[in-house]
Design brief:
mainly alpha, 6 helices, about 65% helix, about 0% strand
């Protein structure tokens, strides 16, 4: 926590955080591909790294399903999707 709790969330800061997710992924550091391996274990690891807690089971299943369906070509979109959820924004 920090002073102000969730009061830092506004329409402007939320949009900036969404755009930051895309900008981070556009840089494509060398280790991003290993981190975004579409296998279930790697996807679960990514969920833990981004959210640092357990997610509701339905959201967890959606991420795993997306990773399985889109494979390596959907890696960036998966991370962007994760970072654009309300769960991520209040983590």
């Amino acid at each position: 926590g920090w002073d102000g709790g969730r009061s830092w969330i506004s329409s402007a800061t939320l949009l900036a955080r969404y755009n930051a997710a895309g900008a981070i992924l556009a840089a494509e550091p060398a280790n991003l591909h290993a981190l975004l391996d579409p296998k279930e274990e790697a996807c679960s690891d990514l969920i833990w790294r981004l959210f640092q807690s357990s997610l509701p089971e339905d959201l967890n299943k959606k991420f795993l399903s997306y990773a399985a369906e889109h494979g390596p070509s959907g890696r960036r979109d998966l991370v962007h999707l994760m970072m654009s959820t309300p769960d991520y924004q209040i983590t």
